[in-house]
Design brief:
heterodimer; A: alpha+beta; BirA Bifunctional Protein, domain 2; Methane Monooxygenase Hydroxylase, Chain G, domain 1; 2 domains; eight-stranded mixed sheet; 8 strands; B: alpha+beta; 5 domains; five-stranded antiparallel sheet; four-stranded antiparallel sheet; 27 helices; flat
Amino acid sequence: MDFQEIVLRLHSFWRGRDCLILQPYDVETGAGTFNPATFFGTLGRNPWRVGYLEPSRRPTDGRYGKNPIRLRLHHQYQVVLKPPPTNIQGMYLDSLKALGLNLVEHDVKFAEDDWESPTLAAWGVGWQVWLDEMEISQFTYFQQMGGINLDPVSVELTYGLERIAMVLQHVESAYDLSWNDKVTYGALWWEKERQFSIYNFESAVVERIQKMFILCEEECRTSLMAGLVFPAYDYALKCSHLFNILDARRAISITERESFIARIRELAKACAQGYLGTGGIDACSTA
Amino acid sequence: MPALLLEIGTEEMPALDIPCLAQELRATTSRVFTQEALTYRQIDVYYTPRRLAMLVCDLETQQEERVRSIKGPPAAVAFDSNGCATQAGIGFAQNQGVTVGELGQVKHGDKIYTSVKRSIPGKETAEVLLTILPGIITGLHPKKTMRWDSSGLSFIRPIRWLVCLFDDKLIPIELGSLRAGTKSHGHRFLEQEEVVLDRATSYVQALASSLVVVDPGVRESMVLNALKEQADRLGADYLVDDELLSRIVNGTEYPTPIFGSIPEGFLDLPTEIVHATLREEGKFVPFALADATSPYFMGFRDGMPDRKGIVRAGYEQVVRARLRDSRFFFDKDRQGMLAEKVGDLRNMVYDARLGSLWEKVERVRALAGAIADHNGDGLGQEVDRAAFLCKADLVTELVQAFPELQGIAGGIYARLDGESNAVADAISEHYFPISNEASLPKSRVGTIVGLADKLDTVIGAVLVGEQPTGSRDPYGIRRQANGLIRLAIESKVDLDFFELIERLKETYLAIERKGTVSDVRRFISGRLAQLLRQRYGIGPDVIACVAAVKGGNFYDVFLRARAVTTSQESKEFHSLITAFSRVCNITKDSTEKGFNPALFKSEAEKVLWREYLKVEGSLTNLLEKGNYEEGIKQLLSLKDPINCYFEDVLVMAKEVSVRQNRLGFLGALAGLFYRIGDLNKVITRSESPETKPALAQEKW
């Protein structure tokens, strides 16, 4: 099963379970959780069910294209269900079957792994899902988002698509995956991985990135004051990404690190509060 | 007799937390059942990642009758001074439907009240269970809880079903939106997952036939047997510690061994790295061969045997991917020498108040150097080199990926860099012992660097005010101090650590303090006393005796404690202490130090003086060799001369110069005994503890 077929099957599976099928966000994110569809969608009492693909950028994970499984950009498939259905574990396992996995022949374990994002002021409880001891998904019951206790809670399913595709295609390097029957993952992504690794680790101009961080932070705050939480959140995301680049450039000392994270967290918390305080809330409802 | 089954069905609970939760379920149930007068024989608990269950065996079907006492007005109000009931007393009796004569008394605080005893007839057990079981479940305290629906329930993971059977009768307890039924769930990946239970006692069997082994003891045997068999076949050892074992046993409902191997291309990696990679996240158990890196490992799948080898292939693929990662880290680390990484420690914060790891290394070097000056056997250079390098592996990729390889990774890299074996071994060993029972460094250099590292951790933590309180011990310095003391005692390090701390206190000048050097001494002394008692079986009185002098030389304290403990049993020792007490009592207010033997007058005085000289000489000699038992025997020979002395000599003579001379001499005599300790604190066998209250306890 090629890479794009996996995405299509997951779209189709979750569309069949009342999920809106959305698109990746067009601002850089480190994970599907940062997409506003999850950040804002998990807040408030409206029911919310979405599924989308999220290319997730993690500058420090870059390996110049030399590591078969560690990637600066990997593809997550993200599902959020609020409130969580009682048979959510079974639903998730059914989605793996929909990808052609015969679970009776494999070893599937839900291994404790509680999730926390200090920058989003968010945490949850859940597992890594191991398929034959390979981590293929993160399964989390969010308890808090943007510093706000969630009621009802949401469940988040994050599929690591490269990992799953490697099992399905029996290959040992992500670059050997077939994207479709002609084009490989490597053909599409290897050069990008190489260039971005050089950029993130060696060439990004620290001073400018630092300035950009400050500009984005200010833009976020100004937007918040104007009651514009969605534009504000875009700039909070940019701050988060710029921070990740600075981190990869090793331009952040350990003591500064905490304060950078705290600054982004404050922005995220303000966005969450602003969202609940304005009428924006109906933008995230599948009722 | 009937049995009660309660099964709490959950989504997968964290493997390491389940045993504790099951014990809490047992304890809570036992407490509540006793309160509720429900009689039973025993409670068996069962658990897997997806369920927490208990079988209460031989539970009576009827709650026992209980007697409740109803408190009325105070006795002094209900009855007058003649013992006649007042209006209040009569009113209370009438309200309760008894006669005044039937009123009893009950003490509450320090007041006496009238009371009426009411017997409450026992209810049907089934009825009581319905009300108390939900509270037992919600009263459990998992380490971390979560919410999953709008019922307000919180637990370690979502509860998805409940089974509650009293014999064959359903007890339909309710919890949140759930109601107990008779349906349990078998293994997740069975076609027919549902299991209907017809009676409580068929639980274990019924689930076993649905591929769920609910008894963790049985699962553990399944795992260990599989490992043993395979190890025997390979002529190898399997490497499993308690944590890895618990992750496997409590992470599966039906553990089935999957045997796998590693391609030869990875076997040139150091064995420790291969093993750490396999053990990562509690996944695989490595096998170890005596003379080579073993290419074999075992994993445990949850479910049926892997007939097509699909799981095995998957496991091997994961292991290869992980090893490739480890190789990447290893190669990257090897691009520079370990010594070059020491400088990077400047950028790693050890503690905001205690500075970077570089600064810690500097302090460890100072301490290690000072220890080596005294106990280094001429290994000063190696000690300094090892101390300099010992934390460098913390900046390696390998240790960042596998924190448990700290020290070990440094040892590997040091050896590859061409450092001497003494230095490489010391780096590997300097964190030892890694638990209270774990082994100590074997090498002298490792011992010294280990002592210095632990000592610095303890000093630093206490100085910044992070002394442990209750269960809070952010630096784990109880364990560090225990390691320090064990290392000093069991590796025979004859050194006064308190003197050392005093001597090197400038090393800690820059630190903003909340604690003092004497807090450090007090904390370590407390650990020493506890360790002497718990690990080495020394009585509290003996500990108080020996720690009164030179308490910072832990090895010496231990030797003296052992000698006193041995001597304690003899009758003679008791009279020696009596003699010593007389000397102490008379000299306790005196500050006289010197004396002139020429001024001795009586024969008894001269005899004791001669005896003193003899003992002093040989005692010094014996104590230098640490032979305290023999030393105590020497002191015993002073017993009779002391007694004679006190019979014949008036110490508090009128003539000032004579008095001062005698006090000065007795002071010196007491000093001999003090080389062993403050013997006044020792309780001998022939004494009862009451005559000498346990001073030791207060002191420590």
